[in-house]
Amino acid sequence: VVGTNEYKDTANSDVVVITAGLPRKPGMSRMDLLEVNAGIVTDVTKKILEHSEDPIIIVVTNPLDQMTTLTAEVSKLSKNKVIGQAGILDSSRFAYFISEKLNVKMSDVYALTLGSHGETMVPVPSLCTVSGEPLVNILSKDDIDELVSKTSDGGAEIVGLLKTGSAYFAPASSAATMVKSIISDSNEVFPVCAWLDGEYGINDVYLGVPAKLGKDGVTEIVEYDLTEAEIDGLRNASVAVKDKVSELGSINSQ
Fold this sequence. Notes:
The chain is α+β, with helices and mostly antiparallel strands. The protein is 42% helix and 20% strand.
């Protein structure tokens, strides 16, 4: 392992993780970060490609969905090779709140969130389980809705507690999990920000969905049998992300 501030030391990388950007601060929405971080991510992406010809790039910088889209546009890499990290982190937060509510081990909980990394996050209670038992059979809709709300606000809560920055350990762990699956070509399924081309009836957008990760990046988008409400949430999230991505164009034209 080599610590460095020089891009030349990243030469011929198979996988590169972009974390560079202004950290989120108390009172700052993810959208507040858009303009400054767009410039940073554009510069970093160009410098990565000066030293690595065809890497897989994992984006962690917020606003996540827009920064992943921007990285793909700037890099001109295949869409399967540009992936955003968010769903693993958000799903872990959802699992934690479920375990806390039920006073069970977090390892006994399977939780899943899709959609955007932000206000239109789509937790998927229909596929969540506790020791194999469906969550919807254990908690009331009101209780689940409360946990969903806490999950959506999880990042902002951490920002408020840290005062001077945003979450770092959990995002790092989530990115490392993705890298491990890619370099080992395990094709494990993770919720990640991936390019959709008709899956779930959604086209031409980076969105949080279940995807297999292997040596070529995203090797398959996995289409789960979601409820009608969850599908609607996912489609609404795709519209919201497209609207937010359009703001990148206005920034670039300034």
